[in-house]
Amino acid sequence: MPNHIHSGHHDHVAMFRRRFWWSLLLSVPIIATMGRGLVGPVLGTVIFVWGGWPFLAGGLAEARQRRPGMMLLIAMAISVAYGASLATSLGLLDLEFWWELAALITIMLLGHWQEMKAIGQAQGALAELAELLPDDAERVRTDGSIEAVALDQLQPGDVVLVRAGGRVPADGEVVDGVAEVDESMITGESRPVGKGPGDRVTAGTVTTDSTLRARVTAVGEDTALAGIQRLVADAQASRSRAQALADRFAALLFYVATAAAAVTVAAWTLLGHVDQAITYAVSVLVISCPHALGLAIPLVVSLSTAIAARAGILVKDRLALERMRTVQTVLFDKTGTLTKGAHVVSGVAGFGGMAEGDVLRLAAAVEAQSEHPLARAIVAAATDTPPPAGEFRSRPGRGVEALVDGVRYAVGGPALVRERDVRVPDAGLVAGWRQRGAVVLFLIREDEIVGALALEDEVRPEARQAVAELQRRGRRVVMVTGDAKEVAEHVAASLGVDEVFAEVLPEDKDRTVAELQVRGQTVAMVGDGVNDAPALARADVGIAIGAGTDVAIESAGVVLARSDPRLVLSVIRLSGAAYRKMRQNLAWAAGYNVVAIPLAGGALAWAGVTLAPAVGAVLMSVSTIVVALNAQLLRRLDLTWDDAAAGVHRAPRRDRVDAHRAAHGAH
Question: What is the number of alpha carbons within 13 Å of residue 538 lying toward its C-beta?
Answer without folding.
Answer: 19
